[in-house]
Design brief:
521 residues; Alpha-Beta Plaits; 2 domains; 10 strands
């Protein structure tokens, strides 16, 4: 039975891994609406979703953890599946002896240190440390900045060889800082997985630490029975190095429910059992203190689990109460004028509070104007998405970024709502306009404005026309800023709204109905 369950787990894990990765790869972006639901099953976005009205996904993950332990880590976490793939490939280059694992003591200091660093700032409304250590968001950045870039490069190589059948595709904006960080995480996880399998999960990952703490109280847990003959077959295949054969104890806080030990044990001694059954009569070894029963736990382990859950719970409660002792009101209001948050963000502060910088919105943007922030929002907004109109503008009918966000850091918006979402407002500078500087007609901003917030009016009694801007109708899409030919400073520049507003609906020019006799001529 366990062999069949293991194969089901492996197939589902690879399927989820592929579907999650495809959300960040350019050639699959047209299908993002079909693939994006799998992103909602990621633990940290689901955790932050508690504050944006999406608690159902966190509740689902919490229930399966309470029942079966850290199933999320081996089934739904893309970075966890990647670690398994790397360790499996690394085994091909190891001797049989080198492939044998053994029990290793937990690195509890590192585990709880990284959990403290990630969850404690959350109480003050600072999401950055959790975002930088979240396994899903890290895999999103790796997929967006490295895998997608590589796929684009291969595509364009074929375009150079077969120009008549394969079209050239422009590259996404390249931000060196985010690329270096993503490459660092990829290299770090790859090295740790190649030599120590799930070491990253059980030392660095805050999600793994929190799920491990909950797993100590799970209803079903892997246990070693009295039939065990100490052959060590189970411990040699344990990817988490959590089977203490000497004491016949499995550290459920590190176990990722991979089922390797259960498929390897020929005696059927290692099984998933209901943990809160009645205590059976202890064997001689248990009476001597060598083998704890299914209900026994070390007090230190239980205290650590309660401490971790208490820390996370306190952070969530403080976060829900919007307790931010490290931010003054002045600091909240001061942002650079060009730090424009994507539609659906509601405000820059809402984006900072809830976004994990997974870059799903960056990957799905058809005009590629959403870029990772490097200083635009300040240090606490590092790598969060912001709009840049230098190479394009926000599509009037496009709402893709609001549909793919896994935890509603970008609130889902219909096309009609998106068309009235005022993320910023354009500002016109006559001194920079070429009508003023070059004494020539233009009107490019008027032609490209989708809401007709810009109209052309006569300029000083001449035959020239200058833009007139209605900022109440403007939605800050950036079409005017992108198309403005003025250099070096553009005449139309969009200034960010700290809090997104609803623009006035553009006036519709009603066409006069004319009665036509016969054929009209």
């Amino acid at each position: 039975m366990y062999k069949k369950l293991k194969w089901i787990r492996v197939i589902l894990a690879l399927l989820f891994f592929l579907l999650i990765t495809l959300n960040f790869v350019w050639f699959a972006n047209s299908k993002a609406s079909l693939l994006s639901p799998v992103l909602h099953l990621q633990f940290v976005p689901a955790l932050l979703g508690l504050f944006t009205g999406t608690a159902v996904f966190f509740a689902f993950l919490l229930v399966i953890t309470i029942f079966f332990g850290r199933v999320y880590c081996s089934l739904l976490c893309p970075l966890g599946v990647y670690q398994d793939i790397v360790s499996r490939i690394a085994d091909l280059f190891k001797s049989k002896k080198q492939r044998r694992e053994k029990y290793r003591k937990p690195q509890n200091f590192l585990r709880y240190f990284f959990a403290l660093v990630a969850f404690l700032p959350l109480a003050a409304g600072v999401t950055l440390p959790l975002a930088l250590t979240d396994p899903y968001s890290n895999w999103g950045r790796i997929s967006s900045e490295i895998i997608s870039l590589g796929e684009n490069l291969i595509h364009n190589l074929f375009a150079g060889i077969f120009p008549e059948s394969v079209f050239y595709r422009g590259y996404a904006p390249f931000i060196i800082e985010i690329f270096i960080f993503s490459a660092f995480i990829l290299i770090l996880v790859t090295i740790m997985s190649a030599f120590r399998r799930r070491l990253y999960c059980n030392t660095v990952c805050p999600a793994g630490t929190l799920l491990g703490a909950i797993s100590r109280f799970s209803l079903f847990r892997p246990e070693m029975g009295s039939e065990c003959n100490m052959c060590a077959a189970c411990s040699t295949v344990c990817k988490s190095n959590c089977i203490d054969l000497k004491n016949r104890k499995i550290d459920v806080s590190r176990c990722v429910s991979c089922l390797n030990c259960m498929t390897m044990c020929k005696r059927g001694s290692v099984t998933y059992r209901f943990a809160y059954r009645r205590k059976e009569k202890k064997s001689g070894m248990e009476s001597a203190g060598r083998v704890p029963s299914g209900m026994d736990n070390f007090s230190d382990d239980r205290r650590r689990a309660l401490l971790t859950m208490g820390l996370a719970g306190t952070a969530l409660v403080a976060r829900a109460a919007e307790f931010r002792p490290f931010k003054s009101e002045k600091e909240k209001e001061v942002e650079k004028k060009h730090s424009i948050a994507p539609p659906g963000a509601q405000s820059i502060q809402h984006l900072k509070d809830n976004c994990t910088a997974c870059h799903a919105c960056i990957s799905v943007c058809p005009n590629r104007i959403i870029k990772p922030a490097v200083g635009e929002y300040g240090l606490d907004g590092l790598f969060l998405p912001h709009l840049d109109y230098r190479n394009h503008f926000c599509g009037y009918d496009c709402n893709a970024c609001t549909q793919i966000c896994p935890n509603h850091a970008l609130i889902p918006m219909s096309p009609e709502e998106k068309k009235l979402c005022q993320i910023g407002r354009a500002k016109f500078s006559l001194r920079n306009c070429i009508v003023f500087t070059d004494k020539t007609d233009c009107g490019a901003c008027d032609e490209h404005c989708p809401t007709k917030a810009i109209t052309m009016i006569p300029y000083k009694g001449t035959n020239l026309y200058i833009p007139k801007l209605d900022r109440d109708i403007c939605i800050g899409c950036g079409a005017c800023e992108y198309i403005c030919p003025a250099r070096p400073v553009k005449a139309m520049i969009v200034e960010a709204n700290q809090v997104h507003l609803t623009a006035e609906a553009p006036l519709k020019e009603e066409q006069e109905k004319v009665k036509v006799d016969d054929f009209g001529f």
